């Protein structure tokens, strides 16, 4: 409808030269630590994994201010051509009341995968949604070179 402002959402796709099983085997605490941006400083407090009911807690240190980001894995699906899991925020800073991040790893050829990050979030204020949008988008874009380097499978 005209006048309806939607919740911010976006999708970013990265391609890596690796098999699907290899990429999936690397989706762990080490990968999360590797693609954390240099600021704020992120400390992984809890990382249970990528399956339903696994929990993740990250402490964000802004030097004068620290906060924690809590998520739970709400869904997981795997088949011969993809792995998909969703993390949903249970307690997220910056006024974010809704957080949903779908992580999709798809085989696009025998030795190549696409990693697709679909983000959807919302605060109580539309202006804050749009102010946070470029920061959150930047956090996800920041991952692409790390995906390509860390997930590249030697032949």
Report the sheet with the most strands, covering strand number, pairing sense and barrel closure: 7 strands, antiparallel
Taken from the alpha-carbon principal axes, the silhouette is globular
- Tell me the series of helices and strands, N- to C-terminal: EHHEEEEEEHH
Helix content: 10-25%
**Annotation, overall tally of beta strands:** 7
Which class best fits the helix and strand makeup?
alpha+beta
Low-pLDDT regions: none
Number of helices: 4
Radius of gyration: 16 Å
The average pLDDT is: 93
Strand order of the largest sheet: 1-7-6-5-4-3-2
Percentage of β-strand residues: over 45%
Terminus-to-terminus distance? 51 Å
Summarize this entry quickly:
By secondary structure, the protein is of the alpha+beta class. Helices cover 23% and strands 46% of the residues.
Summarize the helices and strands and which ones pair or pack.
Elements: E1 9-16, H1 20-25, H2 29-34, E2 41-47, E3 55-61, E4 66-79, E5 82-91, E6 96-109, E7 112-123, H3 126-141, H4 144-150
Antiparallel strand pairs: 1-7, 2-3, 3-4, 4-5, 5-6, 6-7
Description:
The chain has 155 residues and is of the alpha+beta class. It is 23% helix and 46% strand.
Looking at this protein, list some descriptive labels.
4 helices, 155 residues, 23% helix, seven-stranded antiparallel sheet, globular, alpha+beta
């Amino acid at each position: 409808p005209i006048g309806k402002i939607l919740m911010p959402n976006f999708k970013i796709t990265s391609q890596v030269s690796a098999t699907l099983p290899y990429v999936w085997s690397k989706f762990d605490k080490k990968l999360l630590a590797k693609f954390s941006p240099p600021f704020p400083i992120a400390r992984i407090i809890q990382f249970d994994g990528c399956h339903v009911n696994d929990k993740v807690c990250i402490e964000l240190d802004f030097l004068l201010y620290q906060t924690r980001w809590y998520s739970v894995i709400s869904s997981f699906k795997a088949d011969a051509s993809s792995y998909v899991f969703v993390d949903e925020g249970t307690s997220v800073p910056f006024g974010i009341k809704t957080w949903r991040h779908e992580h999709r790893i798809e085989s696009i050829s025998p030795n190549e995968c696409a990693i697709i990050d679909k983000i959807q979030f919302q605060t109580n204020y539309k202006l804050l949604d749009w102010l946070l949008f470029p920061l959150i988008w930047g956090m996800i874009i920041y991952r692409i070179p790390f995906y390509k380097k860390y997930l590249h499978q030697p032949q």
